[in-house]
């Protein structure tokens, strides 16, 4: 570079050290973001594989369970007895609040059957049968099959997170709330409800 007096100076401009540090920090942050995004994608793929494998195993288990129950019913009938499988029931409220005694009103509140058409899954035992008897005039109930449970959860299912209800539009809501019970997706919820599984209570309370 030439100045008016004819002197030559070096054309290279020295970059300040602080600017170099900032560039290095930005580059490092960018690399960390890329690494985190790659790890997140890999984790999501791994979880998706787990979900697919579970779904396949559930189908096999449903078929095996149905065959086993048919066999147990035949054995019981041949012995002059009867076999009652451990199945859930779905309770749907059909009456309003008018002229309801305090006891059944409290039971309906505990079941979260606060309004007409509200529904809840309940694992039926001798104890729960006695508890639910006072509310029988205010509800209708029955044993849902796999198809009806799927339809209820997929079409009308909501999940409770911090006392708020969110539609089950993605598995993210499920993972956030009940993943510690090995429930990661809608099919896991369906499985726990249909089979009255070990995490039935947690699944039913979440819905």
From TrEMBL:
Which key words are in the record?
Ribonucleoprotein, Ribosomal protein
Example GO molecular function: RNA binding
Similarity comment: Belongs to the universal ribosomal protein uL30 family.
The species is Fistulina hepatica ATCC 64428
Q: Which Pfam families match?
A: Ribosomal_L30 (PF00327), Ribosomal_L30_N (PF08079)
One GO term (biological process): maturation of LSU-rRNA from tricistronic rRNA transcript (SSU-rRNA, 5.8S rRNA, LSU-rRNA)
All copies of domain Large ribosomal subunit protein uL30-like ferredoxin-like fold, residue ranges: 92-139
* Membrane spanning residue stretches: none
Q: Where is the Large ribosomal subunit protein uL30 N-terminal eukaryotes domain?
A: 15-86
GO CC annotation, single: cytosolic large ribosomal subunit
> What's the protein called, per UniProt?
Ribosomal protein L30p/L7e
Q: What is the lineage of its organism?
A: Eukaryota, Fungi, Dikarya, Basidiomycota, Agaricomycotina
InterPro entries from the xrefs?
Answer: Ribo_uL30_ferredoxin-like_sf, Ribosomal_uL30, Ribosomal_uL30_euk_arc, Ribosomal_uL30_ferredoxin-like, Ribosomal_uL30_N_euk
Source taxon at top rank: Eukaryota
